[in-house]
Amino acid sequence: MERKIWSVSVALILGLSFLPPQAMGQDYPKREIELIAAFAPGSNTDNFARLAAKHAEKFVGKPIVVVNKPGGGGSLGFATLAKAKPDGYTIGLLSNAVIGHPYLLKGVTFHYRKNFRLIAQIDFSAQGLYTKKGSPYDVPLKELVKMAKAKPDTIKVGIGGTWTAQDFARAIFEEEAGVKFVKVPFPGAAEAVPALLGGHVDAEFGPASEWAHLLKGGKVSVMAVSTEQRDPRFPEIPTFKEQGYDVVLSTIHWIAVPAGTPDPIVNFLAEAFKKAVNEQAFKETADNLGATAAWESPEGSMKSMEKLDQLYQRIVKKYDLKPK
After folding, report:
1. pTM summary value
2. How many domains does the chain have?
3. Do 114 and 136 belong together in one domain?
4. Count of alpha carbons within 13 Å of 187, Cβ hemisphere only?
5. Contact between 215 and 274 (Cβ < 8 Å)
6. Burial letters for 271-303: b for 16+ Cβ neighbours within 10 Å, e otherwise?
7. Does a structural domain hold residue 323?
8. For residues 101 and 113, what is the distance between their CA atoms, to the nearest angstrom?
9. Alpha carbon distance 185, 161 (integer Å)
10. CATH no. for residue 13?
11. Is residue 303 part of a domain?
12. How far is CA 82 from CA 30, 86, 305, in A?
């Protein structure tokens, strides 16, 4: 009899953890929710924060208001989220930068495992190596590698930011191919893309959200993308991997809340964002922004972060990177 009562009690407890907050008497949410975007208005992160907010709020039942907190390559926004009250009224959009910052920036007080609870992964965007259409570097990837080996430290490759996702992709490719480029960092895509089109750099690493519209407009050629399989939107572009270089690295966005946020709120938000990401209109807009809508559960989101972290640790060790 005692065993039966114990079994029923456990089942009830487990069941309650998956009930919506309202069912547990929490009446959440009672008011609007703030979603922190760690980069400036108009940035890729801001675009996806607003897209996620627009589609999720109908399932949440209250407005989700995007609040931009740019600064320190995203560190200000991430730190603001980490320090927020864990009551479900402050959520945020995380990017790859939240993984790299503790390795690269002094004074960083957050870590993705310690300070956040993940709600969902919402999209990914492949990194690509691309060049201006018709330039001397508009060649197959293997040919570019030959050119780089014949004349080391001569091919100028633009990067939107230092040790961003695209910079890590560059470093991994250099290691895989045994080449050395001249890295030319820019504050972001707004400066990097015109430099490529103007002939100031020879090639560029960047996410599909940066080059997709240029590819469709016939302004650039993309030599490779950093996904496991070819992107169905660009089936003509081979992956790095199929060309012999193990470069698998995407720019990813995750929705997160501060550590300590109760399970019922996490589960409620996870279900809301799952429904949002699976809406056809969300998928179409993500595609227009050069990304692929891709929902992952809180557990799956942590796995994707940890996989990226392993890649980052490999490059941090190779280049002996220290916080600056």
Report:
1. 0.83
2. 2
3. no
4. 8
5. no
6. bbbbbbbebeebbebbeebbbbbbbbebeebbe
7. no
8. 13
9. 5
10. 3.40.190.150
11. yes
12. 22, 9, 17
